[in-house]
Every structure is written in structure tokens, then in C-alpha cells.
Write a structure and sequence with these properties.
Elements (H helix, E strand, L loop, with lengths): L8 H13 L4 E4 L14 E6 L11 E5 L5 E9 L4 E4 L7 E4 L4 E10 L2 E4 L3 H12 L4 H14 L1
Antiparallel strand pairs: 1-2, 2-7, 3-4, 3-7, 4-5, 5-6, 7-8
């Protein structure tokens, strides 16, 4: 039997945490549209690695566990001495404060089809910082983009 199996995050992420604690990276398919246009549902996958609060920077994509037990992957938009804030690439709402103990992993690479894109690439960091700066305008930008895609 082959194919993709969908598993609830609550069942999968304890295993992911165990693998990360052993120093391994974990690659998972992206689900949901909150990280669009950088990450696409069912097309892209991400490689998670161990991350530390001390090394977090604006623009990093992180996996956290919310206080209600849900797991979410979004982008760090602001960091303070004892907490950080994050936002999805397709969203305007900022979530936080989030605390170091909520951090599960950091995305170290993106896989688009079979193409490996390290998150350390300068051009990716530049695009991410521009996109974070455009947060107040994202809704309109994405709306125009989707309309243009339908036309062309």
C-alpha cells in the first residue's frame, strides 16, 4: 500500500519531538494555507531542526505548541528578551506573546517538489523580510495576485 496518509498533529508531533531531541531533522508536508505564498498546502514540505529561543530571529519559521495543545507553524515577526511573536504569511493577525518552552522546532529548509531550499539563502531572507514589512497590505496583495492568476 502506498500513498500519503494524513495524521492528526497531536498524534504525530510527540514523535517529531523525540526525533528532534535525538538530533535528527524531520521533513513533513505542509498542510493549510496560513503560510501561503511561501509554503503551499500539499505541494511543499519543510525540514524541521532543533531550534533555541536564543538563536531565533525575525523571519524564522517555527513550530510551536500553543497553550491549548495545538501545534502551529508560522513566522517570527518580533522577538523580545523573554518572548516572541509570530504571524502566518497569509495572515495579518500577530500571535503572542509566545515563550521559549513553547518552541518545538525551527524550519531549516523548504522542499518544493524535489528541490531543496535552505532557509539560510540570502534571497529567501530578503523576500521574507519584505513580506513581513508588507504585513498590513497582505490581504490586498494576495487578493490582486489571485485575480491575476485566474486571468493568466
Amino acid at each position: 500500500m502506498s500513498g500519503v496518509k494524513r495524521v492528526k498533529a497531536a498524534n504525530l508531533f510527540p514523535l517529531v519531538s523525540d526525533l528532534l531531541e535525538k538530533g535528527q531533522s524531520v521533513r513533513l508536508s505542509v498542510s493549510g494555507d496560513s503560510m501561503y505564498p511561501f509554503l503551499r498546502d500539499g505541494i511543499d514540505s519543510v525540514e524541521f531542526s532543533v531550534g533555541t529561543f536564543e538563536n531565533l530571529k525575525r523571519g524564522d519559521t517555527v513550530l510551536i505548541r500553543r497553550t491549548n495543545g495545538y501545534y502551529v507553524m508560522h513566522r517570527v515577526c518580533r522577538k523580545k528578551a523573554d518572548c516572541f511573536y509570530m504571524v502566518g504569511d497569509a495572515q495579518q493577525w500577530i500571535e503572542g506573546p509566545l515563550y521559549p518552552e513553547q518552541l518545538i522546532a525551527v524550519v531549516s529548509a523548504i522542499w518544493r517538489k524535489d528541490h531543496h531550499i535552505p532557509c539560510s539563502k540570502w534571497w529567501l531572507k530578503l523576500l521574507v523580510n519584505i513580506w513581513l514589512t508588507l504585513r498590513p497590505c497582505r490581504y490586498f496583495i494576495l487578493r490582486v495576485y489571485r485575480k491575476l492568476r485566474k486571468i493568466f
